[in-house]
């Protein structure tokens, strides 16, 4: 392929797969490839991945994307990587992986979280702008110290997921300040590692990398990595950032008041702000655009709950879809469309992995409430769509309750679940918000644009968005449906509150 435009490679380590995307500098996706990743669940509440799998997936998908794009000699202008925040990769003195990476969905560190919050909760929130919970790297590493001391003593380098993959490309060791904030070991005001926070878990400061901007060029593709991936040796590699930051940026949410609703493995409701809003119920991160922040409220199970329902109860639809060469999720969508608003009184609380906003309770459990003989498959799928949308409404209300600046003026919907027109409409009807969908919305696309900014293809972060981001559709809330959902949301909330004690009792029972 020949062109006078630059081609940018963006890579994202997702919860279930790794994706490599090549984007032309006008924003057009030229090619992409993905490879599934294996997550291990060795004990209840645990979730881990092998970082070596990420590199193997990068090698395969980068070659596939380059081949599809017909780029001569693997020549792209830049490489930039994103991944979920918080996920620690621990390396020894010879850069060997010391243990599997603990994912952000992992709940094993509940005891460590309780200890941190009891002894240092106010200081952690003041310094790190967040309350400790099992999602964060700080309690995860405390769990390692308490339960695997032989591993903790060998830690020579701490990386988060995308930094390890970039390290494999360049041999350099750094992180960006957004991912650094996501470890809960950063002084948020100073953008420096906090000796006080690290001291709470006895982590040596020498194990932490230097901190850079997401758009900084930090190295180039080394010879071995070039041979492995097919990317031309010497190609500039940009620092990158967390997947959520890349997604928000990549769909053009670059001004205060713009909001994001995300229907992915987890669900998010984010709003762009001019300043941080430290609060025990919310998450605050620097934005890719300098001087901007985004505030996050999040539900743990979204598309992951959809996948769980498919895999456990829709085997016939899965097999039929394979024969027809179609997607089983599309079949579920058609089934859900047969049910009416409110799923004939069937409710779903999506707490398959506990819950974050606004409850921050790892012991909450998912449920279907109100099952009768009238309910069929269509009601269960639609109730799942509605329950996740209710959970996101819970998130949105948590944001707006803090202050006027956290109210959404415009919403862009992203994630794999947003491909469903029905689900998009349900989200719009339940929240009462018009939602806009862009042509591209995954983190690998945002990463590609960040890479372009880093090497100067774009003069600024906002110029890249102006040139590349395109809105392709929107969903308006139906007033009648919105009114019905408001009434149902009150029942959803009452049911949630009344089931907390039962959820906790079931957790204690399962531990016995």
Quaternary structure annotation: single chain
The backbone outline, from C-alpha atoms, is globular
The tally of structural domains comes to 2
Look at the helices and sheets and give the structural class: alpha+beta
Plain-language structure description:
This protein has two domains: 7-251, Nucleotidyltransferase, domain 5, CATH 3.30.420.40; 303-437 and 478-511, 2-Layer Sandwich (Nucleotidyltransferase, domain 5), CATH 3.30.420.40. With 512 residues, the chain is of the alpha+beta class. The protein starts with 6 loop residues before the first strand and ends with a helix. Helix 11 crosses helix 12, helix 13 (377-402) packs across helix 14 and helix 15 (443-454) packs across helix 16. The strands form seven sheets. Strands 17-18-16-15-21-22-23 form a seven-stranded mixed beta sheet, with helices on both faces. A six-stranded mixed beta sheet has the order 3-2-1-5-14-13. The protein has a two-stranded antiparallel ribbon with strand order 4-7. It is 41% helix and 21% strand. The protein is built from 17 helices and 23 strands. It has helices at 51-69, 110-128, 137-147, 149-152, 161-170, 177-181, 195-201, 223-229, 243-250, 303-313, 315-324, 328-336, 377-402, 421-431, 443-454, 461-468, 479-511; strands at 7-13, 17-24, 29-36, 48-49, 78-83, 88-91, 101-102, 157-160, 174-176, 186-187, 192-193, 210-212, 217-220, 236-242, 258-263, 267-273, 283-286, 293-299, 347-349, 367-369, 410-414, 435-438, 471-475. A hairpin with a 3-residue loop joins strand 15 (258-263) and strand 16 (267-273).
């Amino acid at each position: 392929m020949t062109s006078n435009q630059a081609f940018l490679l963006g890579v994202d380590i997702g919860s279930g797969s790794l994706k490599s995307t090549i984007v032309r500098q006008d924003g057009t996706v030229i090619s992409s490839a993905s490879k599934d990743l294996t997550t291990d669940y060795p004990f209840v509440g645990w979730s881990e991945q092998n970082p070596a799998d990420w590199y193997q997936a990068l090698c395969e998908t980068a070659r596939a994307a380059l081949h599809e794009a017909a780029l001569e000699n693997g020549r792209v202008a830049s490489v930039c990587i994103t991944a979920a925040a918080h996920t620690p990769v621990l390396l020894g003195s010879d850069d060997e992986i010391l243990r599997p990476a603990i994912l952000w969905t992992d709940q094993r560190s509940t005891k460590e979280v309780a200890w941190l919050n009891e002894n240092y909760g106010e200081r952690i929130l003041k310094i790190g702008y967040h309350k400790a919970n099992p999602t964060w790297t700080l309690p995860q590493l405390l769990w390692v110290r308490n339960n695997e001391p032989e591993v903790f003593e060998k830690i020579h380098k701490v990386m988060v997921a995308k930094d390890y993959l970039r390290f494999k490309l360049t041999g350099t060791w750094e992180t960006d300040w957004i991912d650094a904030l996501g470890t809960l070991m950063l002084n948020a005001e100073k953008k420096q590692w906090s000796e006080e926070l690290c001291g709470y878990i006895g982590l040596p400061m020498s194990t932490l990398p230097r901190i850079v901007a997401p758009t900084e060029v930090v190295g180039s593709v080394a010879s071995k990595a070039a041979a492995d991936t097919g990317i031309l040796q010497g190609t500039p590699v940009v620092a990158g950032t967390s997947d959520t930051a890349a997604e928000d940026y990549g769909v053009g949410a670059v001004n205060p008041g713009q909001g994001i609703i995300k229907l992915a493995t987890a669900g998010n409701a984010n709003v762009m702000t001019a300043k941080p809003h430290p609060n025990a119920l919310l998450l605050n991160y620097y934005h890719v655009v300098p001087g901007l922040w985004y505030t996050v409220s999040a539900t743990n199970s979204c598309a992951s709950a959809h996948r769980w329902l498919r895999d456990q109860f829709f085997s016939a639809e899965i097999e039929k879809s394979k024969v027809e060469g179609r997607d089983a999720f599309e079949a579920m969508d058609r089934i859900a469309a047969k049910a009416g608003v409110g799923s004939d009184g069937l409710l779903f609380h999506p707490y398959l992995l506990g819950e974050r906003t606004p409850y921050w309770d790892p012991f909450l459990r998912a449920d279907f409430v109100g099952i009768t003989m009238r309910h069929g498959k269509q009601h269960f799928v639609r109730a799942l769509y509605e329950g996740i949308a209710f959970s996101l409404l819970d998130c949105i209300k948590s944001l707006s309750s803090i202050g006027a600046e956290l109210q959404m003026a415009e919403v862009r919907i992203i994630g794999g679940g947003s491909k469903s027109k029905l689900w998009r409409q349900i989200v719009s009807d339940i929240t009462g918000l018009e939602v806009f969908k862009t042509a591209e919305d995954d983190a690998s696309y945002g990463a590609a644009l960040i890479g372009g900014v880093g090497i100067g293809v774009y003069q600024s972060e906002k110029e890249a968005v102006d040139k590349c981001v395109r809105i392709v559709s929107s969903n308006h809330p139906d007033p009648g449906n919105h009114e019905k959902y408001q009434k149902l949301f009150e029942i959803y909330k009452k049911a949630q509150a009344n089931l907390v004690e039962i959820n906790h009792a079931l957790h204690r029972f399962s531990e016995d």
